[in-house]
Structure formats: structure tokens, C-alpha cells
Amino acid sequence: MSNTTIAQENQEMGSSEDIKQVLNFIDGEYVVGGGKMFANINPATGEQSSMVSEAGKEDVDRAVKSARAALKGPWGKLTVAERCELLYKVADGINARFDEFLAAEIADTGKPKSLASHIDIPRGAANFKVFADMIKNVPTESFFLETPDGEGAVNYGVRTEKGIVAVISPWNLPLLLMTWKVGPALACGNTVVVKPSEETPSTTALLGEVMNDVGVPPGVFNVIHGFGPGSAGEFLTEHPGVDAITFTGETGTGEAIMQKASVGMRDISLELGGKNPALVFADCDMDKAIEGTLRSAFANCGQVCLGTERVYVERPIFDEFVARLKEGAENLVAGAPYDADTNLGPLVSEEHKEKVLGYFKLAVEEGATVVTGGGVPELGDALNGGSWVQPTIWTGLSEDSRVVNEEIFGPCCHIQPFDTEDQAIEWANDTEYGLACSIWTENSSRSHRVARQIEAGLIWVNSWFLRDLRTAFGGAKQSGIGREGGIHSLEFYTELKNVCVKL
Length: 503
Ligand code: NAD
Ligand code: 6OD
Prior knowledge:
The strands form six sheets. Strands 16-17-18-15-14-20-21 form a seven-stranded mixed sheet, sandwiched between helices. Strands 11-10-9-12-13-23 form a six-stranded mixed sheet, with helices on both faces. It is globular, with a radius of gyration of 24 Å. Strand 9 (164-168), helix 6 and strand 10 form a beta-alpha-beta unit. It is built from 16 helices and 24 strands. Residues 5-16 have low confidence and may be disordered. It folds into two domains: 24-272 and 480-502, Aldehyde Dehydrogenase, Chain A, domain 1 (3-Layer(aba) Sandwich); 276-468, Aldehyde Dehydrogenase, Chain A, domain 2 (3-Layer(aba) Sandwich). Helix 3 crosses helix 7 and helix 5 (113-136) runs parallel beside helix 6. The protein is 38% helix and 23% strand. The structure holds nicotinamide-adenine-dinucleotide (NAD) and (2E,4E)-2-amino-6-oxohexa-2,4-dienoic acid.
């Protein structure tokens, strides 16, 4: 049975139209779960694109048990080289079905094809290749210990898999952020049970077909659909058969999951929210700073955890920066995902649109000057039912306003003038979050000096979201615990053992 070709009469809705179903993938088979069927809405149009099958507690249990069986069985018996060969095939398999993955991602998110075809799908595939390469070349430590008998002892480190890893992922970059965890987890020899966001289940489900096609043994990669509390997410995190949990999402959800992980002392990796600043100094290259800030504030309709929602601009260039960012924001093209000119998509759902519009209203109540946007665009009959909002820029808010302090996760930013480097750093750090920061300056000494003082896990100088997958990725303060990427992923997804051999 295939995930995406299933069609059925949607009797509940009184329609005889074929409605695509997105199913759970357990032990190498697509199955209808014991929970309810729920609608998956295309946020570009507001129309239903599929029905999704929620996993019940028993399905989650079966997924964890099949992951355990695969670990003890065929998967655990492969050599690293054999495992990596399969992961290269998974990457090739995604690329071979690029257009299907693209269509599934676009139907779930409404994001422009120009974005999804450059970032989401290629990175979704690359995450398997990169981590397969890394695990093949990872060194371990060794020490010779002198002993009183003169014979000595040799210590050496061995890395083995952690076991069953629960992967819980968000909706903003669905395939990319899921494979960012599944790639290294499998490369390190673990098996996984994945709970994608209820908003964006399709590419994760489709990946099951690729796993089967390339010969990944049943049970290595399992997918359960559903929600958080009282649903598949909670059933998974509280399942005692899970050895480690890796989560990307909101800080509040991370706190709830961390409590579950504490039962049975399971390891946890948390990649959480942010309220990221950009610091724009008067000595910046203005063209680069404008281009970079347009991306960091508005790419993916502002739904990137690394996105900039607070922009601090040195006073002499403040007016010019605001005017140019306004012009750039107003030139963004919202529209149908497959139109070549479209570079701004919708928000992921009506619920999220209501949240973002709530902040647009709050900004005005808190005294903001609306430089541009602040409302809902008129896009014509085909798209007006979608979850669209205008790219929005504010000035004039105080640093203690809610809009300047709370993560909005929409296409918006507030721009504040500053007078000294120290003031900019203090404001940048005055947040409970610590995920990312961009610094725009042509003064190299300043860039290093400021970067060191920023309380965040990821700092870009004269760029944004420029990714080298060998580097550490993660947040400080309430933006997360732990680092993934490069050796850091291998550290999380393996158990490091020391073997001491007395000679
Ligand atoms: P979310 O926390 O609402 O949901 C994320 C996932 O957790 C979903 O699959 C959801 O079903 C599941 N979930 C929710 N409650 C749960 C529970 N109690 N137990 C188990 N699972 C549960 O996040 P979201 O709205 O999907 O994503 C947006 C958020 O993610 C933003 O805050 C953003 O900053 C953050 N994010 C962070 C990073 C990062 O790398 N730091 C990357 C992307 C997104
Ligand atoms: O590029 C990545 O590996 C990554 N984890 C990006 C996260 C983006 C957040 O929305």
C-alpha cells in the first residue's frame, strides 16, 4: 500500500470525491491509526488537500516495538558502510521523486516553489548524505595509562547507537527539519519513530515509500501522525521504550516534553523558539544589510526560527534603512506557490494567522508606527480563503513592549535606532531567548568583538541562514538545550563508552 495514492470516498463529508489520505507508517507498512481522521488544509487556498490518520496509543506502542525489533535485528547487524550506502540511496530516492516531495510540501505549507525547491527538498535529501559521510570519518579518543606493574592499560572510546529515538518536528520547514534529525540518528545506527507536525504530515509520510524502495529494513523509520497533548506526541514522549527524544518547536512545548524525558532519565535535544535581533551598524554595506534583512524577516513568511523580528539600526543610517526595507517589503510578491514571481507565501494555518494578526493589532495598541503592512492582502478569489498576511514593519515601540519581546513567527519586524555599540548589544541580549543574531558591519574588529558578546547560539556576520552542516547548531537561554550539527549531532545520537584494557 502506498501513502499517497490511496483514495477513498469521503462519506463523512457527504462527498464522493476522492480524498487523499496521509497514513501512519509502522514497521514498513502504511496503516490507518486508531485515532480520528483529521483534515489537512492547504493554507494558500484554504481548501482541504487530504485527510490525515491520527495514531492511537496502540499504534505508537507498535511503532516503538517495531523500532526495537529492527534495532536488534537487521539494522543493528549492518556495518557502518552498509548503513551509509542505504542512507545515500535514501537521499537519491528523495531527489528522484523531487517533484512529488515538492508538491506535498507546497500543499501542506503553501510556500512558494522558488523557496521549497531551493531549500526544503534539496536540504531534506542532503541531510542523509552529509551525516552518512560524517559518521564514516568520526575519530574517537584513546589514552595509554601507566600502571604500577609497569604493563599499563589502554583506554579507547567507542561510539554506539543510543537506541530508539523519538523525533518530534514542527511545520515551518517540515522535510528539512525532520531529516536534520532522522539523517544523523540513522547514520549513528539508531532507529526512529517520527511525529511530524499535524499541520505538515505529508513529506514525512512520503519518505516511508523511499525507505521501502531503497531497502531500509521495516521498523527502522516509523511515522505516527497526530497532535501533542493527549495524542501521538504525548504517547510517544511518555513511552518507556523510547531511549532519547529530539524536538524542534516552541519553548513551552519543549518544557512539557522535557518533563516527560525526565521519567526514565532519557536524553533530550531541544531546538526551540527565538526573538532574534539584527544589529545594523552605520559602517555596514547597506545593500547587503537590506537584502539580508529582507530575507531574515520575511523568508518563509517569517516562519523561520532564525528569523529577525528585532532590528537595531545605528541612528545615522536609520531613516535610510527604514525607507529601503519598506520598499523591499512592499516589492515582495505574495501569490500562488507555483507562479514564478511569487516569493511570499501564506502563514501555515488560520490559527497561526489569527495569532499573528493579534500581534499586528497589539503593536498598534502599544504605540507602534506602522511603516508598512499590518493587515491582510487582497489576492483574488482563488487565494483569499488562504492564511495570508501582509509583510509588516513597525518603528516606535519601547523595548519593554510585548511585540518586541514575544516570538511572533510571522512576516514582521520592529526597527529601533541605537547610538552606541554597547547599547545595541545590551538590547540584543535583553531577551529570554538566545537563538540567532545577524551583525551587519564592514569593520572586522567590531564584528568579532560584538559577536563574542551576543548571547545566542548562532551568530552571522554580514549574512543570515548561511549553513555549514559541520558546525554547531542550537540555542542559548530559552532557545534550547544541546547542539546538533556535525560532531555535535553524532554526540547526541550515540552513546560514548570507554573501554579500558589492562595489558
Ligand atoms: P510546536 O511546539 O507547537 O509543535 C512542534 C511539534 O511538537 C509538533 O509536531 C506538535 O504536534 C508537537 N507537540 C506539541 N505539543 C506536544 C506535547 N505536549 N508532547 C509532544 N509533542 C507535542 O511548534 P510549531 O508551532 O510546530 O513550530 C514553531 C515553533 O518552533 C516556533 O517557536 C519556532 O521558533 C520553533 N522552531 C525552532 C527551531 C530551532 O531550530 N530552534 C526550528 C524551527 C522551529
Ligand atoms: O538549517 C538547519 O539545519 C536548521 N536546523 C534550520 C532551522 C530553521 C528553523 O526554522
